[in-house]
C-alpha cells in the first residue's frame, strides 16, 4: 500500500511541540537516534494510583524501525513517566506540550549517547559472504 501525503494543517497546533506536530501533520513525529536508527514516538499512559503527583502517568514510547527487508518495527524504548495528572487526557496533553527538542533529548538519553550503529546496511548473508571469501 503506497503512502499518502496530506498537506499540513498549520491551524491545528504548534508543530514545535509533540502534540502540535502530530495534529498539524496527522502522523507521529519521527527522529534519527544517536545510534543511527529511525524512531517514531507516541504518548502512552498507565495508572499510578499510589503516586501523589496524580493517578495517571504518561511516558514516551519510541518505536525503532527495521532497516532491512519489509518495513516494520524492530524494537522499542520507553521513558519513565514524564508527566502525572488527574486524568489520561490531562497527562497526554502535558506530554504533548513537550517541545520536539525535549522529546529528542529523551530519546538520546535512553540511547546513552551511543554512536551510530556499525551494522551493515545490507542483509546478513551478504555480510557473511564477504567474511568467508
Summarize, please.
With 133 residues, the protein is α+β, with helices and mostly antiparallel strands. The protein has one domain (10-132).
Oligomer: single chain
Helix content: 25-40%
Number of strands: 5
Overall radius of gyration: 18 Å
Number of domains: 1
Low-confidence stretches: 116-120
How far is it from the N-terminal to the C-terminal residue, by CA?
39 Å
Largest sheet: 5 strands, antiparallel
pLDDT averaged over residues: 86
Which structural class is indicated by helix and strand composition? alpha+beta
Number of distinct helices: 4
Q: Bin the strand percentage.
A: 15-25%
Secondary-structure element pattern, one letter each: HEEEEEHHH
User: Shape, please?
Assistant: globular
